[in-house]
Fold MFS transporter.
Amino acid sequence: MSARPRWRDMFASLKVPNYRLYATGQIVSTTAQGMQRIAQDWIVLQLSGNVADVGITVALQFAPMLVFGLYGGVIADRYPKRRILQLTQSVMALLAATMAVLIITGAIHVWMIWCIALVGGFATLVDNPARQSFVSEVVGPTLLRNALSLNSSTFQLGALIGPALGGVLLSAIGGGWSFGVNAIACLGTVFALSRMDGSKLLPAPPAPRHKGQLREGLAYAARKDEILFTLIVLTSVALFIYTMPVLLTAFADHVYRVGSTGYGIFNALVALGALSGALLSTRRVSISLRTVIGGAIALGIVQALAGLAPQLAVFGVLLVGAGLAQLLYFIASNSLVQMSTNIAIRGRVMGVFVLIQLGGQSIGGPVMGSIVDAYGPHVGMTISGAVPLATALVAGLVLIKRRGQTVSSVVRGALHPRRV
């Protein structure tokens, strides 16, 4: 962009009727998902008493993505994305309803939660790359950046309200009702998708069937620095920072002893910062690898400082900062990858992106849970920020050398950026 967007253009994508339907469904869906996630993590912790078991739950949710994630991108490129989303949301509604019945009737056990989390992971495997690339079909290339920022804003608005409501509901009447609400919300998303005007969508041509489609997506990602280095840094962030729910259960239960309501508030504080970051991202003039790597450095610093927080109030402020930094980083990395990718192969490249983003959590969840059980929540939180910080610094130095630049020239460029 040649100039910073005007404040009145912050919500430009909402002028598109189909996107209004999509965004409304996102707010409802993510609010309900936030309620369900709070209930699920807390119920597992109360049933087993081990933070590592919460990590296993996270791992099972994302394990299908880790093993089969690239196939989700192939499916997203090959079939109509709106149909895919309607199918996956219907499956998620059925799983949430099953969990609600099991919890409300008192028949729930940890292994049941693990089984349902694993099945839900297979639905997520297809849902996420389709959802990521569907936004461009709804708004077109001109409004894509704005729509990606607003998409994250709606997601974080739901994530802000959901954990707070989920914590209250969990304390008042139990976690089963949160799953019931999510089942209804998933069906609401299916309804919103069905109400879209198909003639106004801009679908990408379906990818023809041929051998080597997975390799084609990987080779495309490896050829471009903007994609390759973004994915390298994302791997570290996904493994250590995106496991925040595992860490927050430990802080709520073992450190500050604020119970399920406090756990919901912790998540809401992260979402409050994330919502602010998503809105601020609509004002960005440009996005580059420097933006992504610099964002990861800032995120690692804030996350590590949260692990060293001396008291609850400071910890809460740093959670807001972590949420802000996390969303600014995520939107920058997501936008850079999408805008650097040809639309015909975008589903497969976003499949790699989502594979790392969600699949990394399947490894990071139990790893961070084990670290917390062995060394305590403060050490776990500090490590979760320090490792991505080191990764981003190394990636930045490698990129500087690869492009024949110097650190001083990059610093000067960061202080006096060109608007492109």
